Amino acid sequence: MTQAPDSWHLSKSVPITLIFALIVQAGAIVWTVSSMSSGIKANQERIVKVEARTESLEKTVQNQAVMFARMDENIKSIKETMDKIADKLDSLEVRQ
């Protein structure tokens, strides 16, 4: 019975602790990849929530900017009206 020169075999000189260490290392790699995958999925979900919240905040900020612009225009209008009233009062005081 002859063995093929490229057949693979495990020598009895390989310690069982080496085999055990390789199995533990393989398990640790699988566990690490699983944890990373879980973390990536959780981060993707959080990113979607943050994007939705960011869009909502951007709309709110835009609406507030429009409201502030309207308030500014109203204040300018009120100031102009008050200036006109003050001018009329000043002209009435000068006549008297």
List keywords for this structure.
mainly alpha; 96 residues
Describe the secondary-structure layout.
Elements: H1 16-95
Low-confidence parts lasting 5 or more residues at pLDDT below 50?
none
The percent range for helix content is over 70%
User: What's the average pLDDT?
Assistant: 90
- How large a portion of the residues is in β-strands, by DSSP E? under 5%
How is this structure best described in words?
This protein has 96 residues and is mostly helical. It is built from 1 helix and no strands. It has one helix at residues 16-95. 0% of the residues are buried. The model has no long low-confidence stretch (mean pLDDT 90).
Structure in a nutshell:
With 96 residues, the chain is mainly α.
